[in-house]
Amino acid sequence: MAQSTGDEGPDLTLGLTAAMYVVLGMIHLGARSGYEIKRTVDQSIRFFWTISPVQVYPSLRQLEQAGYITGRAEPQGRRPRRVYEITTAGVTALRRWLLQAQPMPFELRDIGMVKLFFADALQPSQAHELLDAVRERSAQLLVTLEAIRQQAEATKAQGNLFPLLTLEMGLAFHQAIMAACDNFETQLPKRAHV
Amino acid sequence: MAQSTGDEGPDLTLGLTAAMYVVLGMIHLGARSGYEIKRTVDQSIRFFWTISPVQVYPSLRQLEQAGYITGRAEPQGRRPRRVYEITTAGVTALRRWLLQAQPMPFELRDIGMVKLFFADALQPSQAHELLDAVRERSAQLLVTLEAIRQQAEATKAQGNLFPLLTLEMGLAFHQAIMAACDNFETQLPKRAHV
DNA sequence: GGTAACATGTAAGCGGTTACATGATTAG
DNA sequence: CTAATCATGTAACCGCTTACATGTTACC
Lengths: 194, 194
Known about the structure:
The structure is a homodimer.
Chain A: H1 12-15, H2 18-28, H3 34-42, H4 53-65, E1 69-73, E2 82-86, H5 88-99, H6 111-117, H7 124-157, H8 162-187
Antiparallel strand pairs in A: 1-2
Helix pairs in contact in A: 2-3, 2-4, 2-5, 3-4, 6-7, 7-8
Chain A binds a DNA duplex through helix 3 and helix 4.
């Protein structure tokens, strides 16, 4: 489809999903196999993006088909494995996407926040519990993020500064949530002892 | 599909999606029509949840079928309109959902952050632009949120304290983002004049 | 008289999750 | 020897978005 009319290419360009650009970006940062991409995503952008293996491998094929990456088999022993490198066309496509002044709508989707929003439907003691749950969740995430920090700083040492920035935004976010929880708790009617 | 094998049970109870609970919760807070629910969502939880009319109306039917809300026609003039009220069963279901110690996984999905994460692929001046775009986005949202604040405080006066809390979390979040952007900008190599 | 807001839908498609499936290698 | 990790998939489903469709009332 989208036959090359002469001057250019299969307009996969338009059809690339955000997930594919994530894959492309991770390869650009040095991830080699699909497995490594998935792992890297989990260990870096995990709080504002996720990806599943089921998305990764088809994305790799499409990116290769588009000429943005090149893959070659590199099995380890008898275990099959395919590693990829980004092409100059791929780098161009990545940069174009990054610069694209698309709406970038801010869309979070967090059930925890939704529940908190409706917490007035609960009895005070139960609302407290919910508040604690949300607070605890952020506390947990802070621990996880701190663990990632080591890696982000190593990345920085290699010349990539922005991963550390986004990590720090994540940290700041959850610290803000916890602070808001703490502050709010003082305003709530005292919890009847359960 | 899913033919009734005799004992009844369109076990909608189990199948309720988060979106349906959002609709239920909004009715509990006083929203009456589908249209009003959609509008209320946009004006309250809009930064951590969205909903479209296409979801609202089917949700209302399913909630009514489940006995969680009751609806009646209340046209305004010749314009059709259906208004709903939550039932005691509905309140129970809402509370049960709020208390459900489900994983509450924290899942954001923000392309802006992703782009920022990959910004090292750009030239410094372009990375600056992206940083500014993300910063500006949060600045805009802060304005929107401040506008909502009036309403959240009115809601608080009516006895619902939590909407203001979640609003303040949104504010704190975007303030944190902006602060991180500002802080980071000082660490970046000076932008070559474009 | 026209635009914005009110009010409710249908149809199609797709991105993404869940569940399932397979096998090799390494570490304890 | 067993479990964890590495490594890559298929099939089915579904919630949600997008695009489209329709008509009314209120406001300037």
